[in-house]
Amino acid sequence: MKLKSNTLLLGGLLATSIMMSSCGKSGETATNGAPAANGTSSPAASATTPAGDLVDLTPEYPKPMFIGTPVPTGDIPNLEKPDPEAVKARLTLKVPKGTENVAKGKKVTSSDPLPIIGTLDLVTDGDADGSDGCYVELAPGAQWVQIDLEKEYDIWKILAWHFHKQTSIYFDVNVQVSNDPEFKTGVTTLYNNDHDDSSKLGKGEDKAYVETNHGRLIDGKGTKARYVRLSSNGNTANEMNHYIEVQVYGTPAK
Ligand SMILES: [Ca+2]
Ligand SMILES: [Ca+2]
């Protein structure tokens, strides 16, 4: 089942002026694909706002793309159980005032610099639509993409979409942040579901999950970092690694 119209994206609450006539063309309009959290607060107010003063942020989720396809089965011991409450919690995020998608339009590098399908800039173009032409496909096996936020941010939330046109589960999903572009020092792991350390980034306690249009929400815990690196090691449908979009919600590091 294919839902191809990008205009479906715009049907939600935030029918702002963003026009994404085709995937991969970075938006020329001033509006971010993801809204900022502080429509009303002044810079002076946010500078003195304690981290505990949270506001709502509503990401724009794309339409679901698969209907009725069975969830892959097999030996995935750490697969999470469906949790409607967790999905609900993802619709509106609680973040400090001034939080916005600081990854939008930022440069993306990868362990596979010449992707099989698509281009790396699709990862941060603000568009999480899962249609053909909207995602990048990396080589088989363990691969990563890395976003340079250009300066240090307090990272509150990360939303990542691998692929949601069919039900699939990506293996060894690992999300790390650091101020070291080589990820050799000062690395904080925010998510890791490699339960058996087969990707050699350490054993992770997080759950494996079925990709949906809601992506995966990762708690940044206010970690200070300039670089975000996401790794995976193939998926239940094939050995490839895909990214539709990664959004990093942060505020300038204090
Ligand atoms: Ca995208
Ligand atoms: Ca593994």
* Shape call: globular
Look at the structure and name the CATH superfamily: Galactose-binding domain-like
**Which fold name corresponds to the CATH topology?**
Jelly Rolls
Spell out which ligands are present.
Answer: calcium ion
N→C terminal distance: 46 Å
Low-confidence stretches: 1-21, 24-36, 38-50
Q: What integer value in Å does the Rg equal?
A: 17 Å
Strand residue content = 25-35%
Mean pLDDT: 83
Number of discrete domains: 1
Q: H/E series, N to C?
A: HEHEEEEEEEEEE
Instruction: Note the main sheet.
Output: 7 strands, antiparallel
Number of strands: 11
Sheet/helix structural class: mainly beta
The CATH architecture name reads Sandwich
Helical residue percent band: under 10%
Count of DSSP-assigned helices? 2
The CATH class, by name, is Mainly Beta
Describe this entry's structure for a reader.
By secondary structure, the protein is mainly beta. It has a single domain (54-252), classed as Sandwich (Jelly Rolls), CATH 2.60.120. It contains two helices and eleven strands; from the N terminus they run H-E-H-E-E-E-E-E-E-E-E-E-E. The protein has helices at residues 43-47, 84-91, and strands at 54-57, 93-96, 100-101, 108-110, 136-138, 142-161, 174-178, 188-192, 216-233, 241-243, 245-252. Strands 3, 4, 6, 7, 8, 9 and 11 form a seven-stranded antiparallel beta sheet that branches. A two-stranded antiparallel sheet has the order 1-2. A two-stranded antiparallel sheet has the order 5-10. The relative contact order is 0.22. The structure holds calcium ion (2 copies). One calcium ion is lined by residues 171-172, 194-196, 198. The site of one calcium ion has 6 residues, from loops.
